[in-house]
Amino acid sequence: MNAVVQVEAVRKEYGETVALAGVTLSIGAGEAVAIMGPSGSGKSTLLNMIAGLDRPSSGLVTVQGEELTRMSEGALARYRRRRIGMVFQFFNLLDDLPVLENVALSARLVGTPRRQARTRALELLEELGIADRRDAYPATLSGGQRQRVGVARALMNRPALLLADEPTGALDSRSGEQVMDLLLDLNQIGQTLMLVTHDHRLAERCATRVVHFADGRIAEMEAA
Ligand SMILES: Nc1ncnc2c1ncn2[C@@H]1O[C@H](COP(=O)(O)OP(=O)(O)OP(=O)(O)O)[C@@H](O)[C@H]1O
Ligand SMILES: [Mg+2]
User: Fold this and answer.
1) Assigned CATH topology for domain 31-52+82-223
2) Per the confidence metrics, is the pTM higher than 0.90?
3) Where are the alpha helices (DSSP H) in the chain?
4) pLDDT digit string, tens, across residues 14-48
5) Distance from the alpha carbon of residue 113 to the mean position of ligand 2, in angstroms
């Protein structure tokens, strides 16, 4: 099977709290999976497990045939930088760096020479329609523009998997639609995508499958 991600019987406990109570989920290359569910149901925890930001209490996470649970901290950090792109609700841009440098930094961190990193960053900013703001600081951009920068940064190292945790959660509905269109376009050219959202309409538009979480478990899966 051509799975990019395989999550098998993953549990995650934080003290008494059971954040994930046994989740099994497989995501194929080129899929766009939306994760929905109430606050506290484990959506971000699942994304963090797949991103290698945290480790399961039990169960396995395998991405492109490599088992994250077996990786050292250093290997996990390399995996995060090279294979995963992350987009966050509140953008997580560096305020002291202009847009172009924010985007180029991801490539610098994996050893790409400065010129090459800047060229790729500029290409992405052009594709995402914000190249004219390349020298601006994040604080001077609108939310929608900041999220475009966030998406450009996430794509910098051509990740096997793009993870987006409520990428439209802090945006007005119009900018939210635009960011979703962007994610949809990326998926249509083959980018595998996992997206947490509270907006069912956006989920259905963008996703090939919608997975509903409740109490740390998958409650329902629907084809979109
Ligand atoms: N680092 C942590 N330490 C302790 N408890 C945590 C931690 N991360 C998550 N939890 C707990 O695990 C449960 C699942 O949290 P999670 O953030 O995955 O929910 P979510 O579905 O993303 O919610 P939201 O929609 O509000 O973002 C919650 O009860 C939360 O309090
Ligand atoms: Mg969350």
Assistant:
1) Rossmann fold (3.40.50)
2) yes
3) 43-50, 73-83, 99-108, 114-127, 143-155, 173-188, 200-206
4) 999 999 999 999 999 999 999 999 999 999 999 99
5) 35
